[in-house]
Amino acid sequence: MAAWVSLLVAGVLEVVWAYFMKQSQGFTRLWPSVITLSTMIASFALLSLAMKTLPLGTAYTVWTGIGAIGAFLVGILVLGETVSPMRITAAVLIVAGLVLMKLSS
C-alpha cells in the first residue's frame, strides 16, 4: 500500500512540475524554475521508492498516466485550454488504462 501512496504522490508532483515548467517560460523565471526542479526531484524519488515493490511497467505507466490526466485537467481548468470531444475521449482512455493497470497488479 505504501508503494501505491508513493506513486500517487509522485504522479501529483509530476503535474505540479509540469505546470510550473510552463510558468517558468523556458526556465527564464527563477521561482517557477526552482519549484519545477524541486518537484521533479521529489517526484522521481517517490517513483523510485514505488518501483522497489511495484513492477516497472505498472509504476511507470501509472505515474505518467496521472501526470498526463493531471496536466490535461490543469490545462483546461487553470490555463483555459480548449476542450474537445476527442481530447475528452483520449483522457477517458488513459484513465481506463490506469484502472486496468492497477487491477492487473
UniProtKB/TrEMBL annotation:
Does the record's keyword annotation contain Transmembrane helix? yes
What is the protein's membrane topology class?
Multi-pass membrane protein
The record ties this protein, via SUPFAM superfamilies, to:
Multidrug resistance efflux transporter EmrE
Major subcellular location class: membrane
| Keywords, comma-separated and alphabetical | Cell membrane, Membrane, Transmembrane, Transmembrane helix, Transport
Which parts of the chain span the membrane according to its record? 28-47, 59-80, 86-103
Name its GO BP terms in alphabetical order: xenobiotic detoxification by transmembrane export across the plasma membrane
Q: State the compartments where it is located.
A: Cell membrane
Q: Which terms in the Gene Ontology molecular function aspect does this entry carry? A: transmembrane transporter activity
Question: PANTHER family recorded for this chain?
Answer: GUANIDINIUM EXPORTER, SMR FAMILY PROTON-DEPENDENT DRUG EFFLUX TRANSPORTER SUGE
The record's comment on protein family reads: Belongs to the drug/metabolite transporter (DMT) superfamily. Small multidrug resistance (SMR) (TC 2.A.7.1) family. Gdx/SugE subfamily.
Protein name, as recorded: Guanidinium exporter
Q: Which organism is it from?
A: Gemmatimonas aurantiaca
